[in-house]
């Protein structure tokens, strides 16, 4: 591969790492801060992608749309829509242990998949929504990729700084207190369900934003664009490997897992086609196995959650 | 629409589908009660069972032989998964095991897809005509499904109520610490739980494959209805899981009367949320995690 191709590939990979890092950050708010198990990441992603697509595209035959709104409004709408889906689910499930949330979010992702497939006036069915505007999309290919990477990087940086600030703020401390000892937190008068709901909605909103960035990058969104189980699972392994509860860990884990994932795809694409199809499933098996190994041997991830004060000296003493 | 039509096209298929869900939901509810986590790989374990039976059938075994053999094999696999992946997470927060089981679901499905491919398969070719009894159209395999559920539930209830190990399982479910103190070997109880859950799970996969077709995603689609059934009946209650399974199956088939057919799968989700909202203990007063 010559240099230009390699550069293009790196840009492409960088954009995807940025988008997945947003999902991992969102999951970090839910799981890392609040201990909420969201198994429907792909659902919130899809809601974000379709919402932004509907809001920003020009009118088209056979489906609602034609709002032709500016990009930023589309992204904002994506976050709001994902948060609005999360709200009732959280309201019902967060009173119980996280098991119920896991099942309910699997259900949400399935329902969203059904809606996307069977409501053509909303999503244009199997053909999907096309001609989604892309910022700097009329530039040269490489330049446009670079511009988009810069946009993704800026969005990611802003999200990271905001989440990191929340992590160190009293809100973040309270979330971790609720996660680690619900009873004690309740005894101290914390409104547990409300706080959990906040974390769940914030996380979902970030996932919606990730979906919007994906749709605008691809210029189109179709039901097949994203395999729900694979996407959800990839984000989970990214966060767990990187270190749940640590925002830098989430971003590092995203980069590591995405590089392994797409490198292995390049490797298996070299195989003859009858093996290449099977190799896809072998890769899925290995990514599942990787989660098992991380959970067993390095449950804190590459960058463990930073501990402060008493917790740290307690750990040093051990 | 007359009564007979309603019975033939909605109630009977609903009960058959419900029996299949019930077989899986019993396992989920037992795992909830004794191990205290939700096992997200249960649907894909059912897929694996269905395809193991397919291999046996293709090797020439009649389904009547293949079914018990598959149940035994899947039970062994379930024990193996527990020993290999879940056992060492037992002292960590339970939600870690839930996450691990999501990974196991992906791994089992990947194995099925590598070994058997992604095309739909059936146990036997050709169209089966339903028999008519007093106007009711029932296929043989539908009768088998219902009969198997009834037999399985009767045997399981007798086992739980009368036998020493059944009592041990109920004791573990009611109060694990007290059970351990009174000398119950929790490793054996856990193994027994996986044998029952794995065997019934395989049976639900086989019967789903028998009544529809075998696909690598068939079990994943059953996961939500099975959980809805377990929650609807009351977590930890075997008879609740059966009741819940039948209701969810009926609700899915009857939903076609009022909703577009695409949203059949949404019924289980609606039931799950509704129960969590109004009565999280379920119809028969189960546990709440």
From TrEMBL, chain A:
CDD domains: TM_PBP1_LivM_like
UniProt entry tagged with the keyword Phosphoprotein: no
Cellular compartment(s): Cell membrane
This protein's record includes keyword Hydrolase: no
InterPro entries assigned to the protein according to its UniProt record, in alphabetical order: ABC_transp_permease, LivM-like
Pfam families per UniProt: BPD_transp_2 (PF02653)
Transmembrane segments: 6-29, 36-60, 72-93, 146-163, 197-217, 229-261
Keywords: Cell membrane, Membrane, Transmembrane, Transmembrane helix
Highest taxon listed in the record's lineage: Bacteria
UniProt topology in membrane: Multi-pass membrane protein
PANTHER family hit by this protein: HIGH-AFFINITY BRANCHED-CHAIN AMINO ACID TRANSPORT PROTEIN BRAE, HIGH-AFFINITY BRANCHED-CHAIN AMINO ACID TRANSPORT SYSTEM PERMEASE
Identification of the protein by name: Branched-chain amino acid ABC transporter permease
Organism: Roseibium aestuarii
Taxonomic path: Bacteria, Pseudomonadati, Pseudomonadota, Alphaproteobacteria, Hyphomicrobiales
Automatic annotation (TrEMBL), chain B:
Residue ranges the record marks as coiled coil: none
Main location: membrane
CDD domains per the UniProt record, alphabetical: TM_PBP1_LivH_like
Keywords tagged on the record: Amino-acid transport, Cell inner membrane, Cell membrane, Membrane, Transmembrane, Transmembrane helix, Transport
Domain of life of the source: Bacteria
Keyword Lipoprotein: no
Transmembrane segments: 6-33, 45-65, 96-116, 143-161, 189-211, 217-235, 265-284
Topology in membrane: Multi-pass membrane protein
One Pfam family from the record: BPD_transp_2
Localization in the cell: Cell membrane
Record family assignment: Belongs to the binding-protein-dependent transport system permease family. LivHM subfamily.
The protein's name: Branched-chain amino acid ABC transporter permease
Upper lineage: Bacteria, Pseudomonadati, Pseudomonadota, Alphaproteobacteria, Hyphomicrobiales
């Amino acid at each position: 591969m010559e240099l230009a191709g390699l550069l293009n590939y790196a840009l492409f990979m960088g954009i995807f790492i940025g988008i997945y890092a947003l999902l991992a950050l969102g999951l970090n708010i839910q799981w890392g801060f609040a201990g909420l198990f969201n198994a429907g990441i792909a659902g919130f992603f899809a809601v974000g992608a379709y919402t932004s697509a509907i809001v920003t595209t020009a009118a088209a035959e056979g489906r609602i749309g034609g709002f032709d709104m500016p990009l930023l409004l589309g992204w904002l709408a994506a976050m709001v829509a994902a948060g609005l889906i999360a709200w009732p689910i959280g309201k019902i499930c967060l009173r119980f242990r996280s098991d119920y949330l896991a099942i309910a979010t699997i259900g949400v992702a399935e329902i969203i998949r059904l809606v996307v497939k069977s409501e053509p006036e909303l999503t244009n069915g199997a053909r999907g929504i096309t001609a989604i505007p892309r910022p700097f999309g009329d530039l040269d290919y490489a330049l446009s990729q670079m511009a988009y990477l810069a946009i993704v990087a800026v969005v990611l940086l802003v999200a990271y700084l905001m989440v990191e600030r929340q992590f160190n703020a009293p809100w973040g401390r309270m979330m971790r207190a609720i996660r680690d000892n619900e009873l004690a937190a309740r005894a101290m008068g914390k409104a547990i369900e409300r706080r959990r709901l906040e974390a769940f909605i914030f996380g979902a909103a970030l996932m919606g934003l990730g979906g919007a960035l994906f749709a605008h990058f691809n210029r189109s969104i179709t039901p097949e664009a994203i395999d729900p189980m694979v996407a959800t699972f990839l984000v989970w392994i990214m966060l767990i490997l990187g270190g749940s509860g640590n925002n830098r860990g989430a971003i590092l884990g995203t980069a590591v897992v995405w590089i392994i994932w797409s490198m292995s795809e390049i490797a298996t694409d070299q195989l003859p086609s009858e093996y290449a199809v099977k190799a896809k499933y072998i890769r899925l098996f290995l990514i599942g196995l990787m989660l098992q190994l991380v959970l067993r041997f390095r449950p804190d991830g590459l960058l463990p959650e930073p501990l402060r004060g008493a917790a740290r000296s307690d750990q040093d003493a051990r | 629409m007359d009564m007979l039509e309603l019975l033939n096209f909605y109630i009977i298929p609903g009960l058959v589908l419900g029996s299949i869900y019930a077989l899986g939901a019993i396992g989920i509810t037992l795992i909830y009660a004794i191990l205290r986590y939700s096992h997200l790989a249960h649907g894909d374990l059912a897929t694996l069972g269905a395809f193991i039976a397919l291999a046996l059938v293709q090797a020439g075994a009649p389904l009547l032989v293949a079914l018990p053999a598959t149940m035994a094999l899947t039970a062994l696999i379930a024990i193996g998964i527990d020993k290999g992946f879940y056992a060492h997470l037992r002292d960590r927060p339970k939600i870690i095991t839930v996450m691990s089981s999501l990974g196991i679901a992906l791994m089992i499905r990947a194995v099925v897809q590598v070994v058997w491919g992604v095309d739909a398969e059936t146990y036997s070719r050709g169209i089966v005509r339903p028999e008519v009894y007093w106007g009711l159209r029932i296929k043989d395999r539908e009768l088998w499904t219902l009969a198997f559920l009834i037999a399985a539930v009767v045997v399981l209830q007798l086992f739980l109520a009368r036998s020493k190990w059944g009592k041990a399982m109920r004791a573990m479910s009611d109060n694990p610490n007290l059970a351990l103190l009174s000398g119950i070997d929790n490793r054996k109880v856990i193994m027994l739980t996986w044998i029952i859950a794995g065997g019934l799970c395989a049976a639900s996969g086989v019967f789903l494959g028998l009544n529809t077709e075998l696909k690598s995603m068939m079990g994943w689609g059953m996961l939500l209805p099975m959980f809805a059934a377990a929650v609807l009946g009351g977590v930890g209650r075997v008879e609740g899981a059966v009741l819940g399974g039948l209701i969810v199956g009926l609700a899915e088939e009857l939903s076609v009367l009022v909703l577009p057919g695409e949203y059949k799968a949404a019924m289980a989700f609606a039931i799950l949320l509704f129960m969590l909202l109004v009565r999280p203990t379920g119809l028969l007063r189960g546990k709440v995690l």
